[in-house]
Request: fold
Amino acid sequence: MRIGVLTAGGDCPGLNAVIRSVVHRALTGHGDEVVGFEDGFRGLLEGHLRALDLDAVSGILARGGTILGSSRLERARLSEAAKNCAELSRRYGLDALIPIGGEGTLTAARLLSDAGMPVVGVPKTIDNDISATDRTFGFDTAVTVATEAMDRLKTTAESHQRVMVVEVMGRHAGWIALESGMAAGAHGICLPERPFDPADLVKMVEERFDRGKKFAVVCVAEGAHPAEGTMDYKKGEIDVYGHERFAGIGNRLAVELEKRLGKEARPVILGHIQRGGTPTAYDRVLATRFGWHAVEAVHRGDYGKMTALRGTDVVMVPLADAITTLKRVPEERMDEAESVY
Ligand code: F6P
Reply:
């Protein structure tokens, strides 16, 4: 078989591990050929591709980013392309396509699949917010990076008796804030799922200082926002890809806390540091398993689906299940985290 692979949307540690695994399983397990499209769906539409052999994927397991490059494409352009997907498959002699990506990529994968292209998706996002899979690779790395950053920030915060407001990624779901906040022992965690009241954070910091503690760390997801009427904060605007650009809750909250507390507060925006660099062992393993299962699904003709982790098993689930709703942090997980502030 001739299998195409591409990585689309925001990058994520573990993408290269999937590509490597697909190539190994396809070539050595089945005697297939693999081609990689460059810069996501753009490579597919514009004919930028290259053959991937074992040499091409040698030494990339631990490398962050994606050797194929990535891009975001407007929905309209993809819908247009879906109409010609039989032509696209013919043009490249493709028997199947494995797109690796987040919600936008899996939506595009479904479009192509509905139009008749044999597609098997692989989910990725550091945000861990894709439904139908317990975990996405990249998440563990992001949590590890954010946790280490907060561990470091605690020592400098204590030296200066400051409040550190650490903004982590998480547009619509606060998984990174929840788990890194818990792992680092943050004293407040703000998630998009539960609007916060800055007065509660002020109370928490004052109580800590009354107990003789000399610093506090608040972990805030970029998509978190204050409850109505509790603080002046305007949410961000929508960009050309339909993504909300946030107004900077970390900066805004640090200023607000400083004003209300009369103590120094500093914002730290971790941003893309959470997405860059080498994946953790957990993410390398999950990504490698997803790649293996994607190739097996291709050989079974199990199309229109994506790999997913259920418990400890990798299973195939319909692409439609992955994109209908976002996986948000449930109430109980937030309660668990709050009980150890
Ligand atoms: O979807 C993952 C994510 O890391 C979000 O948490 C974040 O808002 C977004 O990507 C930013 O991506 P970019 O800067 O590439 O648009």
Notes: The pocket of 6-O-phosphono-beta-D-fructofuranose is lined by residues 10, 102, 125-127, 169-171, 222, 275 (CB under 6 Å). The chain has two domains: 2-138+279-323, 142-275. The radius of gyration is 22 Å. The CA atoms of residues 255 and 265 lie 7 Å apart.
